[in-house]
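ok so heres the complex, two chains, lmk if somethin looks off
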Amino acid sequence: MIDSSERPVLEARGIVKVFGQHRALDSVDFTAHAGEVHALLGENGAGKSTLIKILTGAYQPDGGDLLLDGQPIHLRDPLHGQTYGIGTVYQEVNLLPNRSVAENLFLGRQPTRFGLVDRKRIDAAAKDLLTRYGLDIDVRADLSDYSVAVQQIVAIARAVELSGKVLVLDEPTASLDRNEVQRLFDVVRGLKAKGLAIIFITHFLDQVFELADRVTILRNGKRVATQALDTLNTTDVVRMMLGKDVAFDHHPSALTGATKGAVRVEFQQLGRKGMAPFDLAVHEGEVVGVAGLLGSGRTEVARLMFGVDTSDGGQIKVDGQPVTIRNPAQAVAAGFGFCPEDRKIDGIFGDLSVRENIIIALQAKLGWVRALNRDDQIELAGRYAEALDIRAADHDMPVKLLSGGNQQKVILARWLAIDPSFLILDEPTRGIDVGAHAEIVRTINRLREEGLALFVISSELDEVVAYSNRIVVMRDREMVAELDGDTIAPDAIVRAIAGTAPGKPQEARP
Amino acid sequence: MTRPTVDLRPTTQPPMPRSRPIASFFTRPQVIALAAVLLVNWLLFPGFFTITWQDGRLFGSLIDVLNRGAPVAILAIGMTMVIATKGVDLSVGAVMAISGATAATLVTSGVSAPVAVLAALGTGLLCGLWNGILVTVLEIQPIIATLVLMVAGRGLAQLITEGYIVTFSDPLLIFIGTGSFLGFPMPVVIAAVLMILATLIVRRTALGLLIEAVGVNRSAARFAGLSANALLLIVYTFAGFCAAISGLIVAGDIRGADANNAGLWLELDAILAVVIGGTSLMGGRFSIPMAVLGAMIIQAMNTGILISGFSPEFNLVVKSAVIIVILILQSPLSARLFRRLPGAQK
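and the predicted structre for the whole thing:
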């Protein structure tokens, strides 16, 4: 176990990192000791990846100090970090898939003979090295011939060989199955026993409890806590990550008493590999909120509903009629709208005008022959810009010049313009300012009152509580609980997310 | 339960002309560049603007610029839409050779000329469709996907002509390359008609907007319910069709199909014309007439250097200098510089 008086291998003191106006890290302290696994937790935007990039040298801090074995260091780049003994393995293995395992292990430091790469020696050394990691594979085969788990272990072996003091594992288990995770963990435990300091980033809480000794939790760029894990339970951790400390706005009682309309959309046994099949019905005038940590499968559910990913089976009904949704175009034809999580990548057409951004989905639905003429476009854009209070000097200006909140409203307007029957919102308030935030929440409430069926994903628990009639809780790519009426309470949600005391369990899966 | 509703009146009103004042047209870098090139040509060769009427058609250097520039202008019309989707079509030069070879081989083997022309156009459509399938179904990057046909296309053309330059004396094919209509050379008439038709089709329907949307952000296009693949197929097929027309013109002009040299490197001129016309290689906003203007700038330079008596080697150097100037004028850097100048802001 860790002796707290022992000097850490790697120490970060009062790290500050500023991007533009945004303080991504605000005097964050972090220590990694030899022979410990230190988990780093936090929701999206908490500052995890920024901190990791500073620890490995990818970013330079705007304030604070990095100390290695008590000596201050300044890392120019990750390569420089490596010379100090700090190695990183990313979720996406960044090795060369089309080169052999052995070449990947020794790339950049190949033993040579008469100026030529000595293949035999490389292969023998690679074989020998990997045996120590419990891998007995043909090192001459291409790296891509092996599973992601094996590739991860190869990446770890390379990182440890090159550095050997501190190993950063950035979501290494995200694309592994259970057995592969265990295999990886065995390797990590072996390295821990050898005295490496290991920093472990993941979204999976159970893995944190299984592998890590200590945890540091970040929220909004600040360190919330650093604690030994044997003093904590999952509920504590979830509470610290979400940071709501039972200070939720209370669920409006008017909502719980509201009478539901008819069933608008019904999803039966939708699922795919890595995503447990789910059943869900959403009624007219109802908001179903989704709570769960990042990586719990929230976005995957939305993508399945909208046909971005195709379901392996199951059925979708709209107003009682079965519909086929195998791509977004079919979803739009069925009257679905989807405001995706990543506005920039999946949402806005930056160079197109505000007006064109608003009418584009309707135009796609009409087909290219039936063009909306300019007057129709101006009228539509004007109507929805007014309804949603989109602040743009001119609807002919490129949408990329608008603020994040206004861009989000433009995407919302785009879907309202198709007269949707069902609207999916994935993190509708992420990255927008406080004022626009409140407006989006008000708009969600108004759309519900107007009879729309909505499915809203949000990491902000108080926000979900404020507008949802029902809340489904997701954990490990599965809907694990459904709360409605009086059972919607912050504590119940936190417990359901942590998996300690589920609310009303969903029907057992076959 | 009032859900927001949308009333869709039938679209009988004429759709938008891009609302830009006429004055701003003349201050565009492309228009200024063309004017400058023409002016230089006139200084080098005072008879440059002289146009005469002879044997029922117009003659003169200016007409010659239009006539010689037509094949690249036609390629540029198709290329504009491809580039607007963030793609590129390197195969159009080779498709020109295939189209010419098809028409020439068919007429010399006794097939009637209209059938041969239709067959050549059909070959172009097929070539474009092939490119489109590589780009959409197999998801190959456009530059690689069309490189396949760029290389293989000349081989195909040679197989069709069996390695010979197939000459013909069919009046219809020759008319396409060298005839005239209302005094204008046929290639100019074809290019103008195609430009107007293509512009009307993309701007009167929603095709133009949807193509721009796919080019600006293909992922967002998918999320908004656009069928990007269908649009890409249309665009590449159309580019192949345009290349086939150019191929017919070039073959008719020399009364023969030269599989090795017909359309050689013209894909690069076409890409250049599109870029000079202001359509970004990053996709998005496009303008077909401006691309045609770009083709004319390129041809005006070619013609100017030829008639001024400089050796043709100069052509390449001068061309690249002018291109650099135009691209600098269009760059974000110069936009920033101009904005800083007082009074430069509209």
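quick notes: The two ends of chain B are 47 Å apart (CA to CA). thats all i got rn
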